[in-house]
Amino acid sequence: MKKNVRPTVHEIFEHLHDHPEISWKETETTAYIASLLEKTNARIRQFDDCTGLVADLGQGAPVIAVRADIDALWQEVDGEFRANHSCGHDAHMAIVLEALYKLEERKDSWNGTIRFIFQPAEEKIEGALKMVEEGVIDSVEYLYGLHLRPVQELRTGEFAPGIQHGAVRFLKGEIKGEDAHGARPHLNKNAIELGAEVVQMMNSIHLDPKIPYSAKMTSFQSGGSSANIIPGNATFSIDLRARTNEAMTELLSKVEAIADCVSKLHGSEIKVKVASDVPAAVMSEEVVMHVERAINEVKGEDHVKPVIETTGGDDFHFYSIMKPELKATMLAIGCDLQPGLHHPDMTFDRRVLEEASDVIVETVLQHGRRPER
């Protein structure tokens, strides 16, 4: 790349795609983004104790923010475990950097401050809360995120003005007891049987049927290689999902009650604790309308699709949970993504990078566009 000549969105994507880094280890990713931003008029802020950075263009109100997640997954690819951008965060960074370039070129056409948040550790569901702690949204009025969507939801060229993620909670459980001889089952409580009883009772949970939800045990470890020992100890994991935060609260309370009930009934200690918590989306109708108008302006009304509903989660929604007055939504980007998110061989139509950046630019201009003279 020649000095003072900015890279294309595809060049940025290729570099980020070829240099993935896992959560909280995005050191080179942060340095690369900073090196690009240093050639712009953006004011850059980095952090003393974590990766990621924030860049501001413009001055004053309104303060409009765009967030891109920057971490990769750790997964098995072609027989070896390594960092891999199979969730599209490489594309998100490239799209947002391209939008920053375009908005800087049009600096005379908008008012206010545009903040670009390059957030670490989304995959660990920790980065957004760290950014809140660092005060990056204290003055922000409007916040936009973005995410590539699978082909089953949107085709290339289609966009939706919001993603209604559900709430997700991962629980870690433990059953504590003592082992007994296989010939003397009356001397202990079989941890495997207690786990099966928890599963059976979870299958009997009933919430409002109009609200999608699920509770399932996703791992269970108990016993060893000796078939004549009845195990008294076990560890397990539970995956909870619900369409709303209120339903998640109710679902969690029922699972906790089940663990307590089985524990008291059999006299074995059963503990469950929340290991990871992702809130359901809290979207602002106002900003959803801004994105809808932006998609219509860039692509035409035939390419505007309804808000996407998904049982997946994203820590983006912690921003509006922690700051309720914040008006936020996520742009859903159609790109023929296959076979699916988090698949090690995930691919998508890269032509969407340019279009998506145009939609982001137009969305921001919905707020801060200066009137024509």
UniProtKB/TrEMBL annotation:
Question: What range(s) does the Peptidase M20 dimerisation domain occupy?
Answer: 174-260
Task: Output the Gene Ontology terms for molecular function.
Answer: hydrolase activity; metal ion binding
Question: Sorted alphabetically, which Pfam families does this protein's record hold?
Answer: M20_dimer, Peptidase_M20
Q: How is the cofactor bound?
A: The Mn(2+) ion enhances activity.
Xref: CDD domains:
M20_Acy1_amhX-like
Protein's UniProt keywords contain Metal-binding: yes
Which UniProt keyword terms apply here?
Hydrolase, Manganese, Metal-binding
Membrane as a keyword of this entry, yes or no, is no
Question: Needs which cofactor?
Answer: Mn(2+)
Binding residue positions for Mn(2+): 87, 89, 123, 147, 342
- Name of the featured protein: Amidohydrolase AmhX
Q: Provide the taxonomic classification.
A: Bacteria, Bacillati, Bacillota, Bacilli, Bacillales
Quote the gene name from the UniProt entry: amhX
